Amino acid sequence: MVNHIAIIGSGTMGRGIAYTAALSGFHVTLQDISAPAIAKAMDYIDSLITKSVEKGYIQGEQGELAKRNLTYTTHLEDAVRHTDLVIEAVLEVMELKINLFKQIDEIAPPNAILATNTSTMSPTEIGAATTRPKQFVAMHFFNPVPRMKLIEIIRGIDTSDETVEIIKTVSEKMRKETVEVNEFPGFVTSRMNCIIGNEAMNMLMEGVASAEDIDKAIKLGLNHPMGPLEMADLVGLDSRLRNMEYLYHSLGEKYRPSPLLVKYVKAGRLGRKSGQGFYHYNREDVTI
Questions:
Q1: Biggest alpha carbon distance in the chain?
Q2: Is the predicted pLDDT of residue 276 greater than 60, yes or no?
Q3: What are the residue boundaries of the 3-hydroxyacyl-CoA dehydrogenase C-terminal domain, all occurrences included (predicted)?
Q4: Beta carbons of 29 and 7 less than 8 angstroms apart
Q5: β-sheet bridge partners, residue 115
Q6: What CA–CA distances, in Å, run from 97 to 86, 102, 148, 231?
Q7: What are the C-alpha distances in Å from 79 to residues 40, 74, 97, 166, 224?
Q8: Helix, strand or coil, per DSSP, at residue 48
Q9: Strand ranges (DSSP E) for 156-275?
Q10: Over 50: is that where the pLDDT of 120 sits?
């Protein structure tokens, strides 16, 4: 049974997972090596709880319960030494994830399940760096975590049925739907999302239409809730570029990153978090 969840990484995804898990009744420790990042995440979650109560999305007592369920730390050992489930939400860099999980594997209780929130990378490869590949899985959340209904559960080659069933139960308690995916680069959603977004960037580069009209066409013509360029700005263009590079090296030419994406990242136009990507954003829209 999972009672305590350790979330590693307090960026957009980590703090969203922490809020959702705490609101769902789990005891949660959110960890980041950066004290300013942890302070920022704490302020963000407190503000989100307040706004959610004010707008009637949750009751006041639910907000207070979520606050009581949350603790924050900069120390990895404090976060994972007594946990039942670790969910990692750090940058999409394989070496970083492997090194982090080697540390977690040494500290976490033997029965604890280890999960990566990666959107593209191999849980088999990451799990093989631990002593518990049967208890390793990818648990791919979507941004913004509190509102998005899906979690992709991706099996590594050694992931046990028991591990998958426990993760399904945790996901259901968070009021999420799940799909089970056999590991392949990019899984289901990231392969589709990246290739649609990349083609939109190429069309913008070629002058086919403006960013606004490309997004409008996809939303109204194909019934997507958000246009592909808006989505890329939300995800972060640096994150999207890392995902595209991984898919390009894994799956070949059709995933070659758009030259426009590469140019924007070099220019520091990273989307919402930098204030400019394919669109311009006001200060209050900047989330990181």
A1: 55
A2: yes
A3: 186-281
A4: yes
A5: 87, 137
A6: 13, 9, 24, 24
A7: 18, 8, 16, 20, 38
A8: helix
A9: 177-182
A10: yes
